Amino acid sequence: MKHILSTVAEFTEPSLRDRAVTAARGDAPFDILIAGGTLVDVATGELRPADIGIVGPLIASVHERGARSDAAEVIDATGTFVSPGLIDTHMHIESSMVTPAAYAEEVVPRGVTTTVWDPHEFGNVCGIDGVCWSVEAARGLPLRAVIMAPSSVPSAPGYEVSGADFDVEAIDEMLMWPKIAGLAEVMNMRGVIDREERMSAIVQTALESEKLVNGHARGLAGGDLCAFMAAGITSDHELTSGDDLLQKLRAGLTIEMRGSHDHLLPEFVEVLNRLGRMPQTVTLCTDDVFPDDLVHGGGLDDVVRRLVGYGLKPEWALQAATINGAARIGRADLGLIAAGRRADIVLFADLAGFRTRAVVASGQIVSRDGKMAIDVVRMDTNPLRGTVKLQPLGEEDFRLASQGSRVRIATIDRPRFTRWGEADAAVEDGYMVPPEGTVMIAVTHRHGRADSRTRLGFLTGWGEWKGAFATTLAHDSHNLTVFGSNPADMAAAANAVIAAGGGMAAVQDGKVTSLLPLPLAGLVSEASAREVAEGFRAMRAAMDDIVEWQPPYLIFKACFGATLACNAGPHQTDRGIADVTSGTLLESPIIEVFQ
Length: 595
Fold this sequence. Notes:
- 27% of the residues lie in helices and 27% in strands.
- The chain contains 17 helices and 32 strands.
- A hairpin with a 2-residue loop joins strand 17 and strand 18 (364-368).
- By secondary structure, it is an alpha/beta fold.
- Helix 5 runs parallel beside helix 7 (197-209) and helix 9 packs across helix 10.
């Protein structure tokens, strides 16, 4: 059986409302009756006994336990906590390296019924066609996808080149699509604050569309934060501390509190507990979830579980994950179990582990005991193939030619919160010798829209590497990015990825120790989530042999954000070392040559 979520037109159909009203009066049976459970009332914060009657995709009645028994099907909810379906207010399916169908198969049985999907990665690689594919791929899934138009393709214009360029005309076109609910995270913060023409026009067309305008306000405070918000941006998920959370709440932003930085969650819980209430403007999101974390931990359910484990009241966590999320995205039909709302309902076995007994989406039972109860529609993936437009690279592509006997170079210091540094290096046989304590990072344009000469940079604070790692999943332009300690291993890793049509490769001593092909846009596999998770875990293990990680910042995940040029500080891109804050772009890291 194929599952298709009911459309707005079906949800408002007079005949459906007639049936629901008749059933609510007791003059006709329900289609489904959820009986014997404890309702999690996310409006009042109560846990109370109640039964729920469903007609089609609609909740027709919430009434006293045992008051009704007339239904075509009865779900025994005895011993369970009945909650609205979870709403993930900001995420990128592509970060899980699986298709939308495979993603749905993982998160729906865990209680996630709605996602706000920014197909930013597909947009950066495949352009508007990638966003269009995303819209079509989401149709008919048991997971509702509220899709946003990627706002920042590329994320740092002039400092990087991705597979497309979404100017104001492209954004305006996408915002006219009925299935596009707003403008996704505006990442070019300086462009907004400085009122650059491009970003001002993009935000303005979103405001005029009267759809959502979502933000990315990492590191913003004071006047810059006010300026960012005054431009029309109303949300943020890039929190850096508990104090940052509190200041942004006080500023009036809607918070998409994400679970992808677990070390910050205890601080967030402390702030919320100190407030003594869950603000209506706190929602929850996953942002990016790696495939092994998805399969073994979960999606938004995992964020809820961890927050509760760190001391947040379960009722508060579910409020943020349901009614607050629905309010944020302007969906009055979601987020609350009440007559007239959409029947997106989860039966949790408890409010600690949040294991599901059943999941209902738009009035259809889609999961039982953590397993899918329906088939999931799959889209043709051929439009996403053939995106790595590169010939094999050689060792010389990972050496920096130079004159003189020694040079002074600019370095990129620290993972995540980068800053400029400098180092001296010797020159031998016309090539610079990497300074001690540095790791090389090389970015090669792979989309066929610019020259593909490899740009090389040097990282400090990244430990001592014993090999190389190559990836085409590299936020946000997703050019081929290679890290390593020597040119031979770096070339071998790059060529393994090129031959695979995209993906990741780890290399030691010239040997590929792990390879994860991601041939769909160089980001995603058509395999099941569990197969991709197994491959990614093998990649993590191989990388553990190459570098000794130092959490919370020097972690494997840092490899995928090292090219995120829209963030403050220097970052390596396919054009050179870019720093949007200072307006700097160095094509070569060499800043001085000594004879």
